[in-house]
Amino acid sequence: MSTEVRVPTLGESVTEATVATWFKKPGDAIEADEMLCELETDKVTVEVPAPAAGTLSEIVAAEGETVGVDALLATIAEGAAAPAPKANGGTPAPAPADDAGAEDLPVMVPTLGESVTEATVSTWFKQAGDKVERDEMLCELETDKVSVEVPAPAAGVLKEILAAEGATVEAGGQLAVLSSGEGAAASATDDKPAAETSKASSGKDVEDAPSARKLMAEKGLTAAEVTGSGRDGRIMKEDVLKAASAPKPASSRASEPSKPAAIPDAARAPIPAEDAEREERVKMTRLRQTIARRLKDAQNSAAMLTTYNEVDMSGVMALRKEYKDLFEKKHGVKLGFMSFFTKACCHALSEVPEVNAEIDGTDIVYKRFVHMGIAVGTPSGLVVPVLRNADSMSFAEIEKRIAEMGTRARDGKLSMAEMQGGTFTISNGGVYGSLMSSPILNPPQSGILGMHKIQDRPMVEGGQIVIRPMMYLALSYDHRIVDGKGAVTFLVRVKEALEDPRRLLMDL
Q1: For the Peripheral subunit-binding (PSBD) domain, which residue ranges apply (predicted)?
Q2: Which residues make Cβ contacts (< 8 Å) with residue 106, sequence separation at least 6?
Q3: What is the per-residue pLDDT across 74-98, written as a single tens digit (0 to 9) for each?
Q4: How many Å apart are CA 229 and CA 237, to the nearest integer?
Q5: 240 against 74, higher pLDDT
Q6: Are residues 198 and 51 part of one domain?
Q7: What is the Cα–Cα distance from 306 to 290, expressed in whole angstroms?
Q8: Which of 122, 179, 264, 356 has the fewest CB atoms within 10 Å distance of its CB?
Q9: Which DSSP state fits 244?
């Protein structure tokens, strides 16, 4: 009897994911709820646990494949391990090499996913001549959406790297050559010096300094265009910098892709060698390129405008100071500023519903609920988890949910469903010291509120100059839906609610 392992629900409007990593191989014994594999979507990583204990009999969807919701990933058989397991994706595992000899195995680019035909070699974790274990990660590839780790197909020695860091490879292409078997491992130490000498003399860049190989890929140079100054002609990073700053022949310039005419010629001129040595050029990852493109698309598709105001935080700060100890004692969570801003925005959205709407073709869809997106900074970038039905939540519920989602975001444990369906977003640049900024819309939403640093400033009250803790507020909105009057009204209502929090209790 066998149990099927299927793709779980990925979240609202998310229909497919990419199989990123298998933690188990066919034939491995597994326990119930033990993690079998990891799926990646555009924004989050989803772990797939084992639905039952047994033996992983077959992997149906290999690493790199794109799978839909409820698609079959693998099967689990009850009982002991299968006698003849298969390798990734059901392909028979390579026959073991003779104990005394070595067998060369190709390391291939895995399937990258539907409609994805190429990837960039991001990082090599091993160098030519290094010993590796079966399934040990050799390198990492990057596509538009995900990073794909390439494991070793067998234990042995990494004999040759064919695609250096920065190189673009096609699906099914060869990345390296792995020498497997005991003979390869035993002779790795003795053979490595000779291999280095022969490969250095043959001009293969795999034996050059890793930093030099990476820089050559970024500069678009080949080993033949660089004169190595290291031992046995080994190319060093400094050699690549010198070659990159040297003038190129007219013929090679003619073959280069044309650059945008908006860039002045002075910007493309070679820089002095002493400046080049202090620069570091890093190629954008495919994921970062996709993010940049989508952000620009958001600017191009929406008629985005920003209006500003400022708020006196004295009322909120006094109320928070008076009740924060009692609040934490009763609810088990600290009383912060985000609950006040969330409540104030929900209150303002009920009065100006177009800020809580979106465009769908030629229709405007008004949301009679508030799913509040709260932007959270994480080590890997900015994510926006969503507080569903925030308009019906209490201060304590909002604070608890924000604290929970912040922790899950920093640990990379947010699900796709937790970041889908937001109707309005709050972004707090003040935690990083920002005094004023213009936040960018999170399509298809029509509004986003930017919070900023609280700063004591002199203000005039009743003809007197007083010091008040002030914060600049910024509302970016889609002018296609929201008129200037509506945007200003929204921001004024937020300001009024924060300067006199009692208005929130009285629904004023």
Answers
A1: 207-244
A2: 174, 176, 177, 178
A3: 888 876 544 444 444 444 444 444 4
A4: 10
A5: 74
A6: no
A7: 25
A8: 264
A9: H
**Residues involved in catalysis:** 479, 483
Q: What is the pLDDT of residues 446-458, one digit of tens each?
A: 999 999 999 999 9
Q: How far apart are CA 21 and CA 33, in angstroms?
A: 17
User: Are 158 and 126 contacting, i.e. CB atoms less than 8 angstroms apart?
Assistant: yes
Domain of 434 in residue numbering reads as 303-506
d(CA 318, CA 307): 27
Same domain? 31 vs 150? no
By the 8 A CB rule, do 374 and 384 touch? Answer: yes
Amino acid at 471: M
Question: Could you tell me which of 36, 115, 122 has the C-alpha nearest to residue 72?
Answer: 36
Q: Helices (DSSP H) in 369-429: which residue ranges?
A: 395-410
Q: Does residue 236 have a pLDDT over 80? A: no
162 pLDDT higher than 70: yes
pTM to 2 decimal places: 0.50
Furthest CA-CA distance within the chain? 95
Strand partners, 123: 140
Looking up tokens 């937020």 gives: 494
In this model, does residue 444 exceed pLDDT 70? yes
- Say how many CA atoms lie within 13 Å of 402 toward its Cβ: 27
> Is 162:177 a contact under the CB 8 Å cutoff?
yes
Peptide bond connecting 193 to the previous residue in cis, omega within 30 degrees of 0: no
CA distance 108 to 175: 5
- CATH code, domain carrying 141: 2.40.50.100
